[in-house]
Amino acid sequence: MTKIITKNPEETLQLGIKLGAKLIEGDLVLLFGDLGAGKTCLTQGICLGAGLDNKTYIRSPTFTLINEYQGKTPIFHIDLYRLETENEINNLGLEEIIYSKAITIIEWSEKLQSDKKPEEFKFGIHERLEIHISNENETTREFTFSPFHLTPRTPPLFPLL
Fold first, then answer.
1. Residue ranges for the chain with pLDDT beneath 70
2. Dihedral through CA 18, CA 20, CA 26, CA 32, nearest 10?
3. Nearest 5 degrees, angle CA 29-CA 32-CA 38?
4. In angstroms, what CA-CA distances link 51 with 46, 48, 67?
5. What CATH number does the domain containing 119 carry?
6. What is the pLDDT of residue 124?
7. How far is Cα 112 from Cα 71, in angstroms, rounded to an integer?
8. pLDDT tens, 81-92?
9. Full DSSP string of 29-47
10. pLDDT at 120
11. Contact 29, 102 (CB under 8 A)
12. Which of 14, 57, 77, 102 has the greatest number of C-beta atoms within 10 Å?
């Protein structure tokens, strides 16, 4: 587990850029945090770090549910906030995306946790990077990174800084 604190949105964006530069095809990033925690800002940085053109408008998929971006590696940005039932989540076709060669970033990932065992996730998700974001105050955020069964890489995913 790694913890990093950012003091403003620009630092959060830069953190995302550093992380995105280390992600590889097939990586799954699960984001946890309240409204306004910085999930979309971090995702914008991840996309830029993963090679997405900086002229691309990276927005929250709150209403579209899934945004797909074409970088060096395809990137899927998924937002489960508006989905309320397991059936709605199952109908998205997430398995195809999660197990593709894309980088997949999912906001409101707690909706993928098993009701009976919160440490387990739907769709057989095992390999993942969980990022828990907490608001320390209006601008300061604490990011807790927990990798689970990720493919080893060179350079290693951590340290990010």
1. 161
2. 90
3. 90
4. 9, 5, 16
5. 3.40.50.300
6. 86
7. 26
8. 988 888 888 888
9. EEEE--TTSSHHHHHHHHH
10. 87
11. no
12. 77
In a domain, residue 161? The reply is no
Q: What is the DSSP letter of 96?
A: H
8-15: long-range contacts (C-beta < 8 A, 24 or more apart)? Answer: 8/139, 8/140, 9/38, 9/41, 9/139, 12/38, 12/41, 12/42, 12/45, 12/141, 13/41, 13/42, 13/44, 13/45, 13/48, 14/45, 15/42, 15/45, 15/143, 15/160
> What is the span of the domain harbouring residue 90?
2-148
The beta strand positions in 87-135, using DSSP E, are: 103-107, 128-135
β-pairing, 141-148 vs 74-79, is: unpaired
For the record, the structure tokens of 17 come out as 């850029």
Counting the structural domains of the chain, the total is 1
Predicted confidence at residue 150, as pLDDT, reads 87
